[in-house]
Amino acid sequence: MWLIRASVSLLLCCSMPADARISPKVIALQRGLYDELQALERSALIANHGYASSDGSAFGQLRMIFHEFDRQNQECITAILRVLALVDHTLENTIKDCEKIFDLPSLESENIIFRDVTRPLLLRVAELCRQISSDELAGLEATMEAVKEEANGYRERLDAAREDMRTVLEQLEKLPEALWMVNKIEGPVHRLKLRNVEIESSIMEAVQNISHRQGLLRASLLDAIAQSSHDSDDTDLITSFLEGWENETSVLAEDLSEQLQMWNNQTEDTMHMIATEVEAILHNLIESPVTAFLEGENSLKCLAEYYTNVAVQAVVTGLENIFLCFGGEDALAKPLETIVRLLALVENDVDSICQDLQNCFRSGGTHQADRSEMMSCSEAAEPILDATEDFIEAKMNEIFFHLEDAIFFEELHTEACLYYKARELMMSEAFINLRYRRCNGAEEPSSQESLGNSQYIPV
To answer: Of 115, 139, 174, which residue is a domain's last?
Structure first.
């Protein structure tokens, strides 16, 4: 381009007829072009966006590319208008202003959008200037026609580029919020903790009811023994049984609490792990096309189409909704109801046995010889209470395993849900990859390759 600039400079020094004239048709073309480009210049001023300064990220660099294009495009249109405005009957001023065209830094711009949209028109005007400065007026009309045709293409390219830039910027305002998935799980994690607190609170309330009932039974049984036998062995037997029941209940409460806490911790860890993975996928999904565009590997049109692709939005939404797999507030509602019901049944059953023993002790004559050779209440109480202890232990195990099974099922349900959603997202991503490759004219991969590499957005 420096050769053209040099030729213009030399021609400025050469003798050129001051009264060199241009045909009326060229003048008509010049006026039409001038009016059209002037309107484009005004619309460029109106459409100029307030871009944020680059923060070094791919998004920041993209905004700077857009800003640079707007600025360089504005400079070029202004310079071209100066040339067209001076294409008059004498040409002398036109030659002087043509030299400024070749001094534009944007002529050698590496801006991707500028090179695609504006540079072709700039080169046509540069050719026009070369002809004018070389006094090649015979071919001026054909060159002006070529400039007009290029200007029509420029207008279409500019409209498309502005629309694509607007689309990309609008999407970039929405999408980055989805990137910070780790922050988004704080809500589900908090709800998970609240749910477990409520579950534990319900269980503890049922245990406290049993403890209260155990206290009443202890008092009434010991009172019945005191009124009848005054036998310390009976007192020790009842005390040992009730303490054993209290201990079993207490151990169960601790085990249930520990089981819930362990499940809560494991679930929370899994959610954080998935959030980290999802965040990486989203960054790749959203940022990789921008990086590819900045490296000249895809077009602005494909970038805009990519971000407005329904499939991309579906993947983003799907990734955000993946935490729904971890169940709602009623995930353990039915198991909890069963646990509370079983605790109440154990309490009622044991209470019924203790009431019968209490009535037996209150019936009197506990240590008198039984004429029917039946065992005394004291003698009968020991095997009955031993069997009741076995019953209590079995029921406590049943309650514990019921919660364990419920948690295990919830884990299976979560795993199945996660697999299903992951598979669904993988298929969506494979479809996005295919659309993306087609838009950029890249060779389409085989179906197996698409699925196998679906976690990577092609760049």
So the answer is: 174
